[in-house]
Design brief:
It is a single chain. The protein is α+β, with helices and mostly antiparallel strands. The protein has two domains: 129 residues, no CATH class; 79 residues, ACT domain (Alpha-Beta Plaits, 2-Layer Sandwich). Helix content is 56%, strand content 18%. The protein has seven helices and six strands. The strands form two sheets. Strands 4-5-3-6 form a four-stranded antiparallel beta sheet, with helices on one face. A two-stranded antiparallel sheet has the order 1-2. The longest helix has 27 residues. The protein starts with a helix and ends with a strand.
């Protein structure tokens, strides 16, 4: 392969690497598991596969006699986006009743789509998609910082059954933070010796979380609790 044969592939490859890096940088800065390298590789892989799909006439196979081969690059795009779904599923995880990683999964999916655009030679659309995606991830995050902070958390509290029930005291502590706190689940664990209940409520920030943690820790009979803020 000569240098002149490689040159047509450089622009889409470089564009895919830069686009994936720009989107991945935001996820890396946010401390997500799928960060800079993952997004670059996803975008690059999508671009390479799409370039291969666009060049099916150069594939090393021989058609049967008197048979026409009809290529369809869109099938490659379908396969890429279907396959990336498995990778996106890997970054979505559940902690208690909270689901995390949806935004990272969406960023991986759209990064793959942008790589396909670069591989198909649709550079303007790929650049526009990268800019809009970066604006959504960074710009809207800055907007949300200016808005009054309301964090949804999952509170799970456990208390022993062999003493006075702590249910009312726990409910009062939660309602002091959020009057709309509602119970999600009732459980008996450890052979019926411990009652465990979960609530969904909203707090205004770290100060509310610290206040709630102190209040729960001071209730007699409490043997464990967790306060799990939801995040993407």
């Amino acid at each position: 392969m000569t240098v002149s044969a490689i040159l047509p592939y450089l622009l889409p490859i470089i564009g895919a690497v830069l686009a994936g890096g720009l989107i991945g940088l935001e996820r890396e800065w946010r401390g997500r598991a799928a960060g800079l390298r993952t997004h670059i590789l996803v975008c690059l892989a999508s671009a390479l596969l799409m370039l291969a799909g666009m060049s099916q006439g150069e594939w090393a196979f021989e058609a049967l006699p008197d048979e026409n081969i009809v290529t369809d690059p869109t099938r490659m795009a379908h396969g890429i986006l279907t396959g990336i779904g498995f990778l996106c599923a890997g970054v979505i995880f559940r902690t208690g009743f909270s689901i995390h990683g949806l935004t990272t999964a969406a960023s991986l999916w759209i990064t793959s789509a942008i790589g396909i655009l670069f591989g198909a030679g649709m550079y303007e659309l790929g650049i526009l998609g990268t800019a809009v995606t970066a604006l959504i991830l960074v710009g809207l995050r800055l907007v949300s910082v200016k808005l009054p902070a309301r964090i949804v958390i999952d509170a799970v509290v456990s208390w022993r059954q062999d003493g006075p029930s702590a249910a009312d005291a726990v409910q009062q502590a939660l309602c002091r933070i959020d009057k709309g706190a509602r119970t999600d689940r009732f459980e008996l664990v450890e052979g019926g010796q411990v009652a465990r209940r979960s609530w969904k409520l909203k707090v205004r920030g770290g100060a509310d979380l610290a206040t709630l943690a102190t209040a729960l820790g001071s209730i007699p009979g409490i043997c464990g609790y967790s306060l799990d803020p939801r995040d993407d």
